[in-house]
Amino acid sequence: MGSRRRNGPVVVLALALLLGATLSGGCATDPAPPPGAGVPAREPVDGSGRRITLTVGVFGTFGLQEAGLYDTYMRLHPDIAVRQTSLTRNDVYYPQLLTHLTAGSGLADVQAVEVGNIAEVLATQTGRLDALGSAPGVDPSAFLPWKWAQGTAPDGRTLALGTDIGPQAVCYRKDLFARAGLPTERGAVGRLWAGDWRKYLAAGVRYRERAPKGTAFTDSASGVMAAVTGSAALRYYDERGELIVAVNPAVREAWNLAAAFARQGLTARLQQFTPGWDQAFANGVFATVACPAWMLGYIQDKAGPAGRGRWDVAAAPRPGNWGGSFLVVPSAGRHRAEAARLAAWLTAPAQQAVLFERRGSFPSASAAYALPSVADARHPYFGDAPVGEIFAAAARGVPRAPVGPKDALVAQTLADVGMLQVDQTGRSPESAWKAAMKAIDNALDR
């Protein structure tokens, strides 16, 4: 699905490092190349014997460089130099990427693409990207099927290899739950709402009955809506790429449930990724938040030392995903074969496991889940929660939902034009829904 992040993947990737910095359960070592990745014999690209420089274009603090993966690759391949270029914000990076792809110039050898943009890239740039599904070192079966499908174009060619994903859990404050008379052990907490987001609403009603003064059950109605939508098998677009947001019952169910949270006084009426939301973590204003894997680092950063041991992680009512990215190889590159090998190596399970351990980016390669650095990962800040186990289970259960070309725009409009008004101003859900639909139509020139 398209991620609905206030400041795009900058927030997600820049702060996910805080998760990786405190994970326990594995030992960081230089990753070995997966079978066939980076090891097949090859001839010098330019015939000069000079070192080949490959460039990687990313947005935000993507994590590949920070985790030391480029350095490892260069040690394994002395004839290759890897250099990264980065723009801070995806809303600046992505339009430039489209411009450069169209022009066939100004591109890195490998480019990152955020999940909210991947469908548009695959729909409009197929002739300008190299197929990677059979590149040396790539094993389609090593990836989650739904993630592999997101990187596959309508013509059946896989043009994008998945890096991270955002499988969802629910993070909760044990101390506030205890004061409200709710269970605090993560298994019992997960059972409160297992299988149904409406049970999450019911748990909120129970919390409200004995809520500690000045606290709410969850942060925002928009956060609830994003989480519920993220667990649906159909969201904003159908399998044919047609926009169905206005008529999809799953979207309307998410809308109605989120509106119920707002109208029943269960939210702190905050807007995510704003200073007020950040401060609310530190002040203990809400007891739960929909929590993709990358959110752990965000919570740790914003709640600070005082939140250590108070926060924990439980399974979400239904598996869902919020966030993630891909790597593509532009056909205009000078070193396309070498770029494909690099992209394959960076996204292989061993490297994704290292990226998770060192930076907190959860792997899209399910083959990484059996590796000790993922399978045994625990997070001391969150009560030693078995985060590798929790998020791997969520990732495997994510439905294979189509991603549309304007997923990110639709999600943000639903949240900021629509649900935010219900939550913060008391606007009627029906009126806000109509306003959001009109804004989406205007933005898409419909």
Automatic annotation (TrEMBL):
Signal peptide location: 1-28
Q: Which UniProt keywords apply?
A: Signal
Which Pfam families does the entry mention?
Answer: SBP_bac_8
Keyword Signal in the entry? The reply is yes
* The keyword Signal belongs to this UniProt entry's keyword annotation: yes
- Protein name, per record: Sugar-binding protein
Q: What is the lineage of its organism?
A: Bacteria, Bacillati, Actinomycetota, Actinomycetes, Kitasatosporales
